[in-house]
Amino acid sequence: MDVFAKCSEIGARVRDARAAGMYPYYRVLSSAQDPLVWVGDRELVMLGSNNYLGLANHPEVKEAAAIALAVYGTGVAGSRLLNGTLDLHVELEEKLAEFTRREAALTFATGFQVNLGVLSSLLGRRDVAVLDALDHACIIDGCRLGFGRTVKYRHNDMADLARKLGQISGGSGILVVVDGVFSMEGDVAPLPEIARLARAAGARLMVDDAHGLGVFGESGRGTPEHFGVEHEVDLLMGTFSKSLAAVGGFVAGSTPVIDHVRHKARSGIFSAAPPPASVAAARKALDIVEREPERRKQLWENARYLKRELDTLGFDTGKSSSPVIPIVVGADEDVYRATIRLHELGVFANPVVSPAVPQGRAMIRTSCIATHTREHLDRALEALAQMGRELGLI
């Protein structure tokens, strides 16, 4: 069989969707990730960005990136292990370690690469990774690249987690890996109970806080700070592509573990280092996270308002307890229709279909930005209400 034979099915589906005006992906923006964006000649309210604190177009962040670009150029032309480590990388890692209250931190070119590298380098043949059923794809893929066994427990089901941990034979190394904030549903992992169960089983705990860093906690240190369990989380993963206004990611933990990952993680050793402009932008964004807690306060005010109004309209917003607020629709095709209709009404939102969510639970994923005004949100809510009535969702 031709290895490309399978491609025709996807190609045909994409062509049909485009012909029917029902293809909601790869929309082209011609503006920054602000509360209002331009798509073609239309201005839309952005409810689909992970720019939670509104820093991706912040003047200080852009200035820091521009200075780094002028001094260091566009890229480092090599991996961190060899010629690609700049003083910028080291300074950012030291700042991240200090901010997260860890001994050490290590940056990667993308958040996805963090989990690929960390998990594949830590999980040996006698080890077991215990995952929430809705953990992000990069966690699943990182475990696949390792030589250990993977066990999944039902989403946020602590009784099932306890059962799964109890079934693992003695002598195995156990790593529980969980999203702090689940990126599609917007709900939060019960970290205190997860930490207690992991500790009782002699397991280590890693939290992927890509959507929690900068958002949760009094100081913005994420869901472990929010729950008061920072000292019980062995590894903390975060990204720069959400609250920190750039691209890249990091892992923070004890010095021996970070040094192990530094010399064993193939996604870091065999990839070019994060470019200077991104590193400088993330560093400046981290300064602003610490300096301006009012951004988090405004973000949460916006999130609570949007969720309350969506619930009042009659939408199903699931169990969201974060600035990520889903609108559960059901069938994949209906989500495509809803997304396209919202676009026509002036709102940019994201369709989420299986396998990113369970079959029959397709949803529109909305998310708030600290710099949304009440006028922006009301404009979006008016469009959402019209779409919901037209499609019979409310």
What does this protein structure show overall?
The protein has 394 residues and is an alpha/beta fold. It is built from 14 helices and 13 strands. A 7-stranded mixed beta sheet has the order 3-9-8-7-6-4-5, sandwiched between helices. β6, α7 and β7 form a beta-alpha-beta unit. α2 runs antiparallel to α11, α4 runs parallel beside α5 and α6 packs parallel to α7. The longest helix has 20 residues. The chain starts with 6 loop residues before the first helix and ends with a helix.
Characteristics:
alpha/beta, Aspartate Aminotransferase, domain 1, 2 domains, seven-stranded mixed beta sheet, three-stranded mixed beta sheet, 42% helix, 16% strand, globular
Output the structural class.
Answer: alpha/beta
Please give the radius of gyration in angstroms. Answer: 21 Å
Helix content: 40-55%
Query: Can you name the CATH architecture of the largest domain?
Result: 3-Layer(aba) Sandwich
The coarse overall form would be globular
Q: Say what oligomer this is.
A: single chain
Biggest sheet layout: 7 strands, mixed
Q: Give unreliable regions as ranges.
A: none
CATH homologous superfamily grouping of the largest domain: Type I PLP-dependent aspartate aminotransferase-like (Major domain)
* SS field, number of helical segments: 14
Order of helices and strands: HEEHHEHEHEHEHEHEEHHHHEHEEEH
Largest sheet, spatial ordering of strands: 3-9-8-7-6-4-5
Distance between the termini: 48 Å
CATH topology call of the largest domain: Aspartate Aminotransferase, domain 2
For the residues shown, what is the average pLDDT?
97
